[in-house]
Input
Amino acid sequence: MIANCNCEKCEMKDLFFENVGATDIEAMCSNKTETKYKKGSVIVEKGQVIENFIYLKKGLVKLFRISSSGKEQIITIAKPLDFVNLLSVFSDSCYNYSVVSLIDSTTCILDFKQIRDLIKTNGSFSMGLLRKMSTISDKIILQSIEIRQRHLPGRVAFILLYFANEVFYSHEFDLPISRKEIAEFIGMTTENVIRTLSEFRKDKIIKIYGKLIEIIDIKKMEQISLHG
Amino acid sequence: MIANCNCEKCEMKDLFFENVGATDIEAMCSNKTETKYKKGSVIVEKGQVIENFIYLKKGLVKLFRISSSGKEQIITIAKPLDFVNLLSVFSDSCYNYSVVSLIDSTTCILDFKQIRDLIKTNGSFSMGLLRKMSTISDKIILQSIEIRQRHLPGRVAFILLYFANEVFYSHEFDLPISRKEIAEFIGMTTENVIRTLSEFRKDKIIKIYGKLIEIIDIKKMEQISLHG
DNA sequence: CGCGGCTTTGATGTTCATCAAGTAAAGTGG
DNA sequence: CCACTTTACTTGATGAACATCAAAGCCGCG
Output
């Protein structure tokens, strides 16, 4: 039994610990730290030593780095289950990117040593972790390639559809990032992102109320994302 | 002792099997298949079921996919130790990219089931594999971002320096890919790649003799790669 | 209230893709 | 081995896509 631990109700448990026995989970949970972050908080700063195993329980975060020319570049946007620091947690001793929450978020921090022990003793857990890591990396690589191949309107459409289909599950949502951040994600200037959004509005594909976006012509949007 | 197996001399052994006992290695090697590919051969075709664990022993290969507009897109170029199919081997049942050799290459194919068994029984092996996978994914993601942030001259310089510093370890080398393939890698047109190379030649940064490239002004090339 | 950052639009110039046309190299069948 | 075909390479001209610069309105926050 897992005592003194609300991990029982944690929806991550099944996914992350699908192959771990109750005793191990209990040990792990007794050392866990749950932290809440307000929107815009720094969760991880580039250069920090990787000492923990962090995963995102609730919210939305951006992973980014500073390019040689001093601009922020968003590597990816992660939602729960896209474990925040799975990237490079095994390959590096320090973070080479920063993580900031885009909306109020909750992380669960586990002891890295315990995770390493689990890997060494529990083969099924290792296998699951390998699969998880592979999936996340694949997703980021594919996303990066998909974005690269598109022109500006296609890139903006891609991002909007990403939020609609994979984050908010609705055609109407509050953009969790600024126009500037969209630009930093898709590698264009802020002005052109705005211009493209205005075009979409003029073409009656979306409605804009500040940060609130409503996609009214999904078909056309998908078409632009694919062939724009 | 490892009998009937030239794996003894294989320089991969220490890296890949650093934590595996002799008995396990022997079992693994008895089921291995070593295959040689001429330049330009298809090693993996998109859509194939992933049944084996392939790694590149010798040579150079390109991983690519076909974009929705029908163009080839090179995801990355892999050299020995950048295990060919580590990408998505654990996350997918089929390849979602193709692999073709750029120069004469040799792969070593291991039984996937045996690898899975090793992961389950040998924690140190799992840990090593996690590290290896993480490193490779990180590299591809970083490379993709680095390329994306640059303008044309910067991208071409980046590629040339990649070949010089990380593949051939020389300022003079035979380009293993065509101008068209460079374009497919960095996301530009063939014409502009050629134009940029010609510019470099006019500026006395490189010399070009067909496929043979000689970088004569490394300093300037590095500067273009960083700030071009 | 006023400062700073975000947003928006327009004007301008740069970068890059596309089209066209020609040369060189490399493979192919007789 | 040579004529033939195809593919790779190269350069120029043109227009489209995009960045940059500039200016003004908006909004939140101390």
Q: What stands out?
A: Chain B has two domains: 6-147, 150-227. The domain at 6-147 of chain B is CATH 2.60.120.10 (Jelly Rolls). Residues 178-180, 190-191, 194-195, 198, 210 of chain B lie near DNA strand D (CB under 10 Å from a C1'). Chain B touches chain A at residues 65, 67-69, 71, 73, 75, 87-92, 96, 116, 119-124, 126-127, 129-131, 133-135, 137-138, 140-142, 144-145, 148-149, 187, 226-227 (CB under 8 Å).
